[in-house]
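Justification of resources, computational component.

The compute hours requested in this renewal are based largely on the per-chain cost of generating structure records like the one below. Each record pairs the submitted sequence with a full structure-token output. That output is archived, and it is also reused by downstream analysis tasks.
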Amino acid sequence: MSLVSMVDTNLARQQAQDPRKVSPAEPVGVSTNLINQITRWIPTETITVYVALLALVAPLTAHSPSFTSRWVLFWLVTAANPLVVVLLAMAKTKTGDSFKLPVFEMIIAPIAFAAWAFALPDTPLSSISGYGIRWNTAILTVTTVAVTLVANALHKSPDYDQVVTKQQGANPASPEVSG
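The structure output for this chain reads:
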């Protein structure tokens, strides 16, 4: 999934909260099965950029064991995540609709990015004495599950009626059905 799906989810929630909006003619957001609930919060766009830049500007060699460039790149891309979320939300907001800052997504994106960046084999965490690569999987698993649970607990993941059409079983009390 991606930051785009985070923004789509946010917009689907906003649309569903407006009682004047009708049931969608086509699904909005991402389906709500377990895998999509977990993968929805993976910031693939910034991870892709990070990996490409990592290979370009921060190669590790036997002669240069410094992780400084990796840490600098990590923090720059981590800080860019909320900005990317805002820009995507602005791009997807229809003209005339009021723009709502996607605060939850702006907080979750850098957290999820950090977990995925730390899961890479040449993680900057390797610069910490005693750190072993076995922790990469633990960090990623715990963070991904925690983000999913928090998003569901705070109702930041779409529920069934927000992502299906009337024909697929959306709420029959939708204004389009009852009107």
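Confidence is low (pLDDT under 50) at residues 174-179. Residues 3-170 form one domain.
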